[in-house]
Amino acid sequence: MDIQKYIKVEKVPGGQLEDSVVRKGVTINKDVIAPGKMRRKIFNQRIILLDWPLEFKKGENQTNAELLKEEEWGVLLQLEEEYIERLCVQILKFKPDVVITEKGLSDLACHYFSKAGVSGMRRLRKTDNNRIAKACGAVIVNRPDELQQSDVGTGAGIFEVKKIGDEFFAFIVDCKEPKACTVLLRGPSKDL
What is the layout of strands, in order, in the sheet containing 158-164? Predict the structure, then answer.
């Protein structure tokens, strides 16, 4: 195992050098998708990590559809909504507190999650997703039908999003048996 993959140095300008810490877990420069509707602090959370989009899949090439009637547009939108709803219902069966995906997450999926009290983050780097998996014991799921109870990460103590300086950072810390950590360096600039 290459430990360099699981230790990240995050440089955050502002504060003093004495404010630097080593966190048992992961720190990511991200905010939840809907800050006013999703929780920013959760204790003993259940985390689901995804490597697939929670949005309607567009064709690899631009897809052409000929709509002969105005009602057909409504049918297409209905199909998209049903697809997203099925994905969200499938995920919500596992009672997550946080859902994180490396891909996109549609506004409709965001609505279903916030309604269920689930916080979501999208477009994470694969390396960050791997570090979260190592920190909290989750398994990154590649396809919707592969999701199972054992994939849910339950090893993290606190999920918290804080504003430091001008940016938001998500902390998944106080993990029970972390195999990843973050060195958070503070100082007058990123160079010091």
Answer: 26-28, 167-173, 158-164, 41-43
In Å, how far are 15, 88, 134, 174, 182 from 177, measured between CA atoms?
Answer: 29, 29, 9, 9, 14
CA dihedral sign, ordered 140, 144, 145, 147: positive
Q: Confirm if 76 and 65 have CB atoms less than 8 A apart.
A: yes
Please give the helix or strand (H or E) that residue 112 lies within, else none.
helix 107-115
Those residues with Cβ within 8 angstroms of residue 117's Cβ, 6 or more apart along the chain or in another chain: 39, 97
Tell me if 60 is assigned to some domain. no
pTM, two decimal places: 0.87
Does residue 80 belong to any structural domain of this protein? Answer: yes
Domains of the chain: total? 1
Residue 134 belongs to a domain: yes
Q: What is the DSSP letter of 71?
A: H
The gap from C-alpha 32 to its chain's centroid, in whole angstroms, comes to 8
Structural domain including 120 reads 3-54+75-187
Q: Each residue of 17-75: pLDDT tens digit?
A: 888 899 999 999 999 999 889 999 999 999 999 999 998 766 544 566 666 777 777 78
Residue 123 CA to residue 106 CA, distance in Å, equals 11
Domain presence at residue 120: yes
CATH code for position 32: 3.50.7.10
